[in-house]
Design brief:
Radius of gyration: 20 Å
Order of helices and strands: HHHHHH
Low-confidence stretches: 152-169
Helix content: over 70%
Strand content: under 5%
Number of strands: 0
Mean pLDDT: 89
Structural class: mainly alpha
Distance between the termini: 41 Å
Largest sheet: none
Length: 169
Amino acid sequence: MPLAIPQALKLDHEEFHDEVMHASREEGALGATAKRLLRIMQPHMEKEESFAHPPLGLLEDVARGKRPDDTELAEVLAMTDRLRSEILDMLAEHRMIFGAIEEFVAAAKAADRVEYAELAIKLIHHAQLEERVLYPAVTILGNYLRLRFGVGGATDRLSSGRPSKAAAP
């Protein structure tokens, strides 16, 4: 079974996309800045949904002590490794998104469109949640799964209850 992004995150991304898409249909600077924001935001959200968010779908089960099956374990570790290797790029993309949001807010204020300024605040909060909670949680989940269940070598023997060669006298 493929890893599933937690529904709340999936719905947030869909809502953000739809709201920015709606704003992109506005006239003038507001529409133009929304289009720019969408061009920057969309590929980033696709990356998140491909490897940064899906591991979180296992978090609840793992917290309850359930062991992922071998396919899930391999899949989640590949994703957590990818996030770890691309984290600096992901954070740089957030900075680019923040820059586009600043322009979007200025255009929303100039057009006296409070709802779009409020959308910008929600986008910023979401990105901060990802940076400060979700990305670290994915990284910790990968570390935990690797230590607890392992991939190859002694850790597999430990998780099966058999002592590793290193532990033998």
